[in-house]
């Protein structure tokens, strides 16, 4: 599906590139840390910080990747039963999709901020890596904000992907475009 540019396209491009860069750094970081962990165990001198740091990198990666999946409406949805239903159900499902997804990200942000506030208040630190835990915990509210932005991008620029259309009609259009 082709992207329809909006007034916020430049902003969305910056956010998408930032997410891609952060995810690449996190994946490379995880690979390096896990290789060091394996080498340490093979040599009999394991690094105590590798297990904890791979866990923290993984948490950051999952929350940023969760958000990135919504940028182009690439998150999973079950649409099989909606295809069989009437047109009004398809329209209602788009509204419910937006309401539930955006509500989820608001909930995720609020709960994440509560956890971060608690981590700051109690001066929590990691056990092997003595970094403040709020640096790890902040990934949840950041992921929520990025997910909210990504969902807005889906509705503004990838509306055809969001729309629950008639699959038979879509197949016919695709065949006509090929011929």
UniProtKB/TrEMBL annotation:
The keyword Transmembrane helix applies. It comes from the Bacteria. It is found in: Cell inner membrane. Residues 30-156 form the Tripartite ATP-independent periplasmic transporters DctQ component domain. It is a multi-pass membrane protein. The keyword Transmembrane applies. The chain crosses the membrane at residues 21-44, 56-74, 95-116, 128-149. One of its GO terms (cellular component) is plasma membrane. InterPro entries: DctQ, TRAP_DctQ. Its main location: membrane. Keywords: Cell inner membrane, Cell membrane, Membrane, Transmembrane, Transmembrane helix, Transport. Belongs to the TRAP transporter small permease family. This is TRAP-type C4-dicarboxylate transport system permease small subunit. The lineage of its organism: Bacteria, Bacillati, Bacillota, Clostridia, Lachnospirales.
